[in-house]
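Intended use. Records such as the MBL fold metallo-hydrolase entry shown here are meant for training and evaluating sequence-to-structure methods. They are not intended to support clinical decisions.
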Amino acid sequence: MELAPGVHGLPLHVSMDDREATFNPTAVETPRGLLLIDVSLPDEVDVLEDALADEELALDDAWGILVTHQDLDHAGCLATVVDRTDAVVFAHEIEAPYLEGEKELVKSSEERPMAIEPTTVDFRLTGGETFATAAGPMEVVPTPGHSPGHVSAHFPDAELLVSADALNVVDGEFVGPRPEVTQDLGTARESVATLADRDVAETFCFHGGHVEAGTERIAEIAAER
């Protein structure tokens, strides 16, 4: 679905942990080609490619990938996509050592080991960087909490927020961080307050997809305790 001029939501229907799930990365048209915001699980490149084709886009046109954070559902097939496209990888500097294999993924444990194929982060972000896109400037917004260096993307001209996992849609309700999968809930809630300071009319969540809700509802979520 087109969220704003040249900004496409990509619903991916996948199997994870013996259940069906829908993930929602984003493809952004830029003067250089496609910029992907997140990818998907290992071995799910074909699903990503099909979702792009549904939007009349091509994976081979991707020149860059903004990885919002290290989780498998967001970065699991990153190495494969980079091998296929030679895309440049952007991620927050705190996330880079996890993506490059220097640190163990924060959600990995003896009971449930997790790993992704190490991939070089070409540009380490600190927040506030902007990308030129068909929908106007896209700002990288640090939203830590779900993971140490989680980021979201804001398109001020379109009043669109791509929240990754900082916000969610659960059973049709626009909600904040999910405690059961959030590394630092207090910090995650502070990040919601950061997002509430921006002009947002519509939000696209990696889990739950698109909602016609923004600043007012985000401020309500930030006030919840």
